[in-house]
């Protein structure tokens, strides 16, 4: 793949996943979670719910982490932002940015130092605040694409998808063109149901999932798997399945001296492992074909 600097290619395009039909989702309020994406009709497992090109991108191996924030990233983000349409800019600025005063101060200091070094007049207060907002939105919502050419990308619609430990979609970056994210249903989704993704590892025990969502994304997960009072899922049974799967993870492969009984027992444990994976991740058979 070859593409020029992202600053010349404002993103945010949506590719209709269902031919020319209307989008399968709408953006609406999600109680307790700000905005979210909701299905506009019944969606079958395996359907592409959303395919979207990035709006902002900072190439590199792992620059989504706050510790890697530098002037180069700020300049790249601001240049791309300036090339967006008014509507897209407004949509971007409405995305959530985790309040982080020390991050905002760092952005201000980097800009001020660069202006002083270049001998140009300092940037206006409003422009500095916009830069802080762009960086905050990108750091809060960016997806690490695992391709150095695209690095950490912001997708306007995909960013609206809230987390669940028992999500109904999974996300992919296209190998041939990692500028695009694809969101695919991993199980049937009912009309008006919220579309969800798993940010943390869905196969971790509840305490570890909760710790991770709090530490990295600054919220406490209250999804059906985390809330023991949610009737949608037997969270105790879900937790038992995760523990069972963990105990099977380190299962040794039987050696050449293994008896028939040992091989048979190992096969049974492997089958159980696959079964638990399918149950916990909805539909790994479909994921594997991506
Ligand atoms: Zn959860």
From TrEMBL:
- Where is each SET domain found? 23-200
Q: Which PANTHER family match?
A: SET DOMAIN-CONTAINING PROTEIN 5
What is this protein's name? Uu.00g066830.m01.CDS01
Give the organism, scientific name: Anthostomella pinea
Q: Which Gene3D superfamilies match?
A: SET domain
Basic and acidic residues bias: start-end ranges: 258-270
CDD domains membership? SET_SMYD
Where is region (Disordered) located? 1-29, 246-270
Top-level taxonomic group: Eukaryota
